[in-house]
Specification:
The complex is a heterodimer of chains A (307) and B (951). Helix content of chain A is 6%, strand content 55%. Chain A contains two helices and 21 strands. In chain A, strands 2, 5, 6, 9, 10 and 11 form a six-stranded mixed β-sheet that branches. In chain A, strands 14, 16, 17, 19, 20 and 21 form a six-stranded mixed β-sheet that branches. In chain A, strands 12-13-15-18 form a four-stranded antiparallel β-sheet. In chain A, a hairpin with a 3-residue loop joins strand 19 and strand 20. Chain A is elongated, with a radius of gyration of 25 Å. In chain B, strand 4 and strand 5 form a beta hairpin. The longest helix of chain B has 28 residues. By secondary structure, chain B is an all-alpha fold. Chain B is built from 44 helices and five strands. Classes of the chains: A mainly beta (307), B mainly alpha (951). Chains A and B meet through strand 16, strand 17, strand 18 and strand 20 of A and helix 8, helix 9 and helix 10 of B. Chain B: Its main location: other. Chain B: This is VPS35 endosomal protein-sorting factor-like isoform X1.
Chain lengths: 307, 951
């Protein structure tokens, strides 16, 4: 006799806002009558923090103190102990998604689902069927995603910049300091807004007005900056989320090339600051010359869940 | 047993007996059904001939490849007209894509990079681009980031592929996508799509790029369709929707939308620009499931994003793909897309001439014009579709684009595409402006040949161009063309312009152009033979378009131009082209102009002289055909001497072609008769020299032929003509020659590669000959009576024909007929001018005796044949022969003579013995005998009845 347990959510996207009701069914598939000691459903949400390896040495003392932060836990009994007939049995359920009312200090409320490198925000539905002494309990789990409600759109905050050899030196962000002769170039870039709604693509334009050497590639890099820690110390790490090319080869001079990036789901979330961690985002525009010499310009951006 | 010897005596008829041949009633006319069959054959043969000549037309080209090129050009021209106003771009594109595939080919080695193909060598580091940000945790490698980083080890580079191998691999990838999709490996299919579009960033073998584009976009379409079809299935089940416009996002279930979104997110995270753009385009129609409103902005965005592609060639084709994909979705709404992309292309136009690109194509040993030609299909297509858009005024657009041409540097590519894409009427209006533009920039411009030849083609379609400006146009054209570097280009350009000149300018002008052409070709430093194929095209166009084809030969530069090529092969081709075009257009009956005649003579001589041992039979047939047309067309009207001289000259010029000699003999015979009768007193006045000369001509010409039957026929014909002209000596000579030829006639001759029996033909000729012999008077100088006939009889005796052969005994029967007729006092027919033997001998006894002696011998021989037929059991033949002979005896023989009577009786009995008398033929014969009131016939009848009773 074999039995199988699955959770199916009604909503195909599995995306829910706070206050909504998560509806779905638990499907029990069994080739014979199934005795059990009760079927329970648990909803859990938590933040996993991890210190980056390069910081471990320094913060060893408190590294253990970083424990998952619980965001929500709800548990309910779906079916009291009894017997489930053979075949497919569908058990509907509804769980309200609501943040805890009694707030402990530092409790951030329901955060958006986010998959990062050092910070992960996850929500899981777990279904558990306890069975008699000799039988293993049956388990099933299902991730779902939490998103904030859409806020009113924030006012646009466009930024413009010019990238020239002099701006590179001034900001000191040029990585190729060993380079003796800087090529002559004048690049103009514009980002339509640094306050970006997550559902909209990131847009802007870049124009190469002048460049004495051929360009190999122009790229747009989305970077997450994750900060974990507490008063004693913290780690701050910037990692790439995605890097997409917007110019391939020596593009035409004096032409506006659109910047366009769709923000990836799950790997981005609204910019978040809590007591224990921060999730921030930055955008890099990188111009790579034929000899792999790289010029970048960095823009901190604010991600929002808004229309 | 029959008596061995019967003395033949012919019946001397007083008046013509009407019932010379046995007659019987038949239900239908024996020729009637035959006529129908002949008709059938005629049509069948005609269509067969048509198709044959269509096939053989291939022989008329020097270079089949050039011919293909020509065909392509014709196709291009024709299909542009056909699909005018048709908004179904994809159909037209299909035509275009096959043209691209056949045009852009390469012999270079190609490279393919893929992880889904067997073979090839591993590439260690596939993505060489730098990840700038540090501390990337190696452990955490996300699916997202892996998307376009294939399993490093699996990516293989296959180099040194030939074009065919490349195509095979591409097709394998196409199959691989479908296989992966069907086996639920959808991400794998997606990855193959990405890899394929990456191949389009490789421009190492540029001249193959347009074809590569076509091949790879096919794969992308496959992928796009797979995704689209699955979404359709998820949304509408197996019922589906008929029209993609019917897809309503409101009806699409959430799960399908979610799937669609997932594909789009996946696509949006492709790291490299080119594959991302290609993949988005291939998935563009999936937006239909989410929101229709998003499509147009997406297309507009993609249009702009293509600016990021630095390589102008890659970008141009990317635009073509975008437009094609978008127009398929948007249909009528897509009008602006082409125009916008064309504008974008023009904004980036100078990238084409970027130093980097120059370095690249020069490294691949491409010339500037070849390089620019790679863009032509893409720009042409954008331009064509923009024009197809009804909302834009073509004239304004043309003016706009021409203004742009004037402003920008390196305008040739744009100009070339503008000229070829726009319709003739608009281009013609602007022709002088365009020409001026070319003239101003002539030193630098490449693709001049393309611009000029399409401009020329446009002008050729003009019906009535104002004369004055046509002249100035051509002058300007000539200035440009004569300074062109490449003779090949020069000839290409000349082709349409010469047609324009021919139709719009006077002969003098055309002649000046031809002279200039000769001068150019002489100066260009390369032998004209290198361009003989193009030369032929030029000549063809001219021959086709000149209003009066005869005028060509009146230009003093035409023949030198034709003979500019030096090698015999090229000359032959040239002559063949000119002649066949000339005769296909030439519509009057005769050519009288001496200059034309001598020019054509020269061309025919070139054709003839090219024939050698290795010439294909079909080829020489074609030549003979052309030369025959020439000979038949030449006429000197009443100047017979000149006409004959022409034939004499032709004979010596075309001696290698039997077919031509035959035509000449016929022509001379016709001339001979024309001289005698047609011209009234002229023939008489000439004192018969013409007739004698003609007869002599024929007599001398015929022996050089190869085919015995033809010779036989021509001897007979020439003899008859001589006889008609009262040239007895010449006629006799011909007939003697004919008789002398009889022993040499083979039983079979080769005709069209098949062995065919000769005896029907020989029988026909011989019986014609025998009829002629009746009126042929004896040569009184020789003392032999019926001199020629006796010669024939002797010859027949001598040659040992097989006696049971029908040809043999039916000839004997006919000789018997002739002999009987010859004994008459007045022959059945005469020639007006000729005194036949009846008048000559006045039925003198000696002559009649000799003739009857022959008849006796012949009769004797026939009896021998009868016996032999019996011996070899050829009963039917024997029966027929017996009846035939019987008939001759009772009709032509004098039954009052005993031997004739008993011969008749014996023959009848023999026939009765072989078959009963119910045979129709036998019955009618008997009936004729019964109706005859002559006492001799009565006696015979009586005798026949007696003998039948006795038996």
């Amino acid at each position: 006799m074999s039995a199988n347990l699955t959770i199916n959510l009604k909503r195909a996207s599995k995306v829910y806002n706070e206050g909504e009701i998560i509806a779905g069914i638990v499907v029990v598939e069994s080739s014979g009558d199934l005795r059990h000691e009760g079927l329970t459903l648990v909803m859990e949400g938590f933040v996993n923090l991890q210190l980056s390896t390069k910081n471990v040495g320094i913060f060893e003392a408190f590294s253990n103190s970083i424990k998952p932060i619980n965001l929500i836990t709800t548990s309910m009994e779906l079916v009291p102990p009894g017997k489930i007939p053979s075949g497919i049995t569908e058990i509907p359920f509804e769980v309200p998604l609501r943040a805890r009312q009694a707030v402990s200090p530092g409790y951030p409320g329901l955060l958006e689902t986010y998959h990062g490198v050092f910070v992960n925000v996850m929500y899981i539905l777990k279904c558990n069927m306890k069975r008699s002494f000799l039988n293993k309990p049956l388990n099933a789990s299902c991730q779902f995603f939490v998103q904030y409600k859409q806020q009113e759109p924030a006012p646009l905050k466009p930024v413009r910049c010019e990238i020239t050899p002099s701006t590179i030196r001034a900001s000191g962000s040029a990585s190729g300091s060993g380079r003796t002769v800087m090529p002559q170039f004048q690049i103009y870039a514009e980002i339509d807004t640094t306050v970006c709604p997550l559902d909209k693509p990131l847009t802007g334009k870049i124009r190469v007005d002048e460049c004495s050497v051929p360009i190999k590639s122009i790229e747009l890099q989305l970077v997450r900056v994750e900060t974990c820690g507490c008063a004693e110390g913290y780690s701050r790490d910037a990692t790439e989320i995605q890097n997409i090319q917007i110019g391939d080869g020596d593009v035409c001079r004096g032409r506006d090339v659109p910047l366009y990036m769709v923000l990836p789901r799950l790997f981005t979330c609204p910019t978040t600051t809590t007591v224990n961690f921060k999730i921030e985002f930055e955008l890099n525009i990188a111009v790579i010359f034929e000899d792999d010499y790289l010029v970048t310009e960095n823009f901190p951006i604010l991600l929002l869940r808004s229309r | 047993m029959m008596p061995v010897y019967y003395q033949w005596s012919s019946l001397k008829k007083q008046n013509c007996n009407k019932q010379d041949y046995p007659r019987f009633e038949v239900s239908s006319h024996p020729l009637k059904s035959n006529v129908a069959i002949v008709n059938d054959n005629a049509t069948a043969r005609k269509s067969l001939m048509d198709s044959l000549s269509k096939w053989s037309s291939a022989f008329e080209e020097v270079d089949p490849l050039l011919r293909f090129e020509q065909m392509n050009m014709e196709d291009d021209l024709s299909h542009i007209e056909v699909i005018d106003k048709v908004s179904n771009y994809s159909k037209t594109w299909n035509l275009k894509r096959s043209a691209i595939l056949s045009k852009y080919t390469t012999g270079e080695k190609l490279t393919i990079i893929s992880s889904f193909l067997p073979g090839g060598e591993k590439i260690s580091s596939f993505s060489a681009l730098i990840r700038q940000v540090s501390n990337l945790n190696e452990k955490v490698k996300h699916r997202l980031e892996q998307l376009d980083d294939f399993d490093e080890g699996s990516v293989r580079k296959t180099m040194g592929l030939s074009q065919q191998e490349f195509v095979v691999k591409i097709n394998m990838l196409n199959d691989e996508i479908k296989k992966a999709w069907d086996s639920e490996q959808r991400v794998k299919a997606f990855k193959i799509g990405i890899q394929c579009s990456k191949l389009l960033s490789d421009v190492t073998v540029m001249q193959f790029y347009p074809s590569k584009f076509v091949l790879i976009t096919d794969i992308l379409d496959t992928f796009g369709n797979l995704v689209f079809d699955r979404l359709k299935l998820k949304s509408y089940g197996t019922a589906g929707v008929n029209n993609i416009q019917d897809i309503d996002p409101a009806q699409v279930p959430e799960s399908a939308k979610e799937t669609c979104q997932n594909w789009l997110f996946k696509m949006a995270s492709i790291r490299e620009l080119l594959p991302r753009l290609y993949m988005e385009m291939s998935l563009l129609k999936c937006y239909l499931f989410i929101s229709k409103e998003e499509i147009k902005p997406a297309v507009a965005r993609l249009t702009k994003m293509i600016r990021g592609i630095g390589n102008p060639l890659v970008a141009a084709y990317l635009r073509v793909y975008l437009c094609n994909v978008a127009s398929k979705i948007l249909g009528q709404d897509s009008e602006d897309i082409y125009y916008n992309n064309l504008k974008e292309f023009l904004d980036d136009y100078q990238q084409i001439f970027h130093q980097m690109m120059r370095k690249k194509y020069e490294a691949q040993l491409l010339t500037m014009d070849k390089y620019l030609n790679l863009y032509v299909p893409a720009v042409d297509w954008l331009m064509y579709c923009t024009l197809n858009d009804s909302s834009k005024c073509k004239q304004t657009l043309l003016e706009e684009l021409l203004a742009q041409c004037e402003q920008i540097e390196n305008n040739e590519l744009l100009l070339c595409c503008v000229v070829s894409a726009f319709d003739s009427s608009n281009i013609i209006k602007k022709s002088s402006c365009i020409l001026e533009m070319v003239e101003n920039d002539v030193d630098r411009m490449v693709l001049i040949n393309e611009v000029l030849s399409s401009l020329g083609e446009h002008l050729c379609t003009a019906d009535n161009y104002r004369h004055q400006s046509a002249e100035t146009l051509i002058q300007t054209f000539w200035k440009i063309a004569s300074s062109m570097q490449s003779a090949l280009h020069f000839l290409q350009v000349l082709e349409p312009w010469l047609q324009f000149a021919c139709t719009h300018l006077s002969t003098q002008h055309v002649n000046i152009i031809l002279r200039g052409t000769i001068r150019y070709m002489v100066k260009c430093g390369r032998p004209a033979d290198d361009f003989s194929g193009n030369f032929q095209f030029v000549l063809k166009r001219m021959l086709k378009s000149i209003p009066d084809v005869e005028e060509l030969f009146l230009m003093d530069a035409f023949m030198p131009l034709v003979e500019l090529v030096q090698t015999s092969n090229a000359r032959t081709m040239m002559a063949k082209t000119v002649l066949s075009m000339f005769f296909s257009r030439y519509d009057s009956n005769c050519i009288e102009d001496h200059i034309i005649i001598s020019s054509l003579m020269r061309l025919c001589t070139i054709l003839h002289d090219s024939i050698n041992a290795v010439t294909v039979e079909d080829e020489s047939k074609l030549y003979a055909d052309l030369i025959n047309k020439f000979i038949q067309a030449v006429s000197y009207q009443d100047d017979f001497e000149q006409q004959l001289n022409f034939y004499v000259e032709s004979r010596s010029a075309f001696i290698k072609l039997d077919a031509v000699l035959v035509t000449l003999v016929h022509a001379v015979n016709a001339l001979s008769l024309r001289g005698a009768g047609g011209a009234g007193g002229a023939g008489a006045a000439s004192g018969g020299w013409l007739q004698r000369a003609c007869a002599a001509y024929c007599f001398v010409t015929v022996p050089s032929l190869h085919c015995a039957i033809t010779k036989l026929h021509l001897y007979l014909l020439s003899g008859q003509v001589a006889l008609l002209n009262n040239c007895i000596g010449q006629a006799e000579a011909n007939f003697k020659a004919l008789i002398g030829l009889i022993p040499d006639i083979p039983d079979y001759i080769l005709e069209d590669g098949q062995k065919k029996p000769t005896h029907t033909k020989v029988a026909g000729i011989l019986s014609d000959f025998l009829s002629t012999m009746l009126i042929l008077p004896d040569n009184l100088d020789s003392n032999c009576k019926a001199y020629i006939l006796s010669g024939l009889i002797k010859t027949i005796e001598r040659i040992h024909w097989k006696k049971t052969e029908p040809l043999y005994y039916s000839t004997l029967l006919r000789i018997l007929d002739l002999l009987c007729e010859m004994t008459q006092e007045k022959y059945a027919y005469h020639l007006d001018s000729v005194l036949s033997n009846d008048v000559l001998y006045g039925s003198e006894t000696e002559f009649v005796e000799i003739i009857e002696n022959y008849a006796t011998n012949i009769c004797q021989e026939l009896l021998v044949v009868l016996k032999m037929l019996g011996d070899v059991k050829e009963t039917k033949k024997q029966y027929n022969l017996a009846l035939e002979l019987f008939w001759r005896v009772i009709r032509r023989g004098d039954l009052l003579q005993g031997p004739m009577l008993s011969l008749a009786a014996n023959l009848w009995m023999l026939s009765q013995k072989l078959q009963d008398s119910n045979n129709k033929l036998a019955k009618t014969m008997l009936l004729a005998l019964q109706n005859d009131s002559k006492p001799a016939s009565r006696r015979l009848l009586q005798k026949l009845e007696e003998s039948s009773k006795a038996s």
